[in-house]
Amino acid sequence: MYIKDIMTKDVITVTLNDNVEKCASLLIKHNLSGLPVLDESGKLVGIVTEGDLIRRASRIKGPAVLEVLGGMIYLDSPKKFMDELKSSMGQKAKDIMTKKVITIDPNQTIEEGATLLVEKNVKRLPVINKEGELVGIVSRRDIMSYLFPEQ
């Protein structure tokens, strides 16, 4: 069996300029854990997840520093801190989305999809065809339903 056999074909998506409230509303209303983000041409550019929205509401820890002779040495990455700060203040999907999206081809096997979910520690995989178009999404639940069908 292949990903195309179990994927959800009618994918609920958002655009780069959709606001955070719309993203949260869609996630709650449709009982989803993530929304693919599409650019103006309809190409996948990111994903807004429950984690992205929750992270936005969390407290951000500043980078650890060491003060030596009146100077500061950063022990953690200040860039990471600035990225988290910018994300926490974001109002649009483009500001808070995860940009590095793990995807899968519709002709890959369900076992390959399960392996990707586990190895990459993600909850869903946008399904992208050879032309780079979003054609579906497969979630942990889709794979669970395949592996353990209801009697």
Account of the protein in words:
- It is built from 7 helices and 7 strands.
- The protein has 151 residues and is of the alpha+beta class.
- The chain is globular.
- α2 (20-29) links the parallel β1 and β2 (34-38).
- It has helices at 3-6, 20-29, 50-57, 78-88, 93-96, 110-120, 140-147; strands spanning 14-15, 34-38, 44-49, 65-68, 71-74, 124-128, 134-139.
- 37% of the residues lie in helices and 21% in strands.
- The strands form 3 sheets. Strands 1-2-3 form a 3-stranded mixed beta sheet. The protein has a two-stranded antiparallel ribbon with strand order 4-5.
Shape: globular
Identify low-pLDDT runs: none
Counting DSSP E segments of at least 2 residues, the number of strands comes to 7
Structural class given helices, strands, pairing? alpha+beta
Provide the residue-averaged pLDDT: 85
Number of helices: 7
Instruction: Give the amount of beta strand, in percent.
Output: 15-25%
Taking the alpha carbons of the first and last residues, their distance comes to 19 Å
Spatial strand sequence of the major β-sheet? 1-2-3
Described by strand count, sense and barrel closure, the largest sheet is: 3 strands, mixed
Rg, Cα atoms, Å? 18 Å
Order of helices and strands: HEHEEHEEHHHEEH
In helices, the fraction of residues equals 25-40%
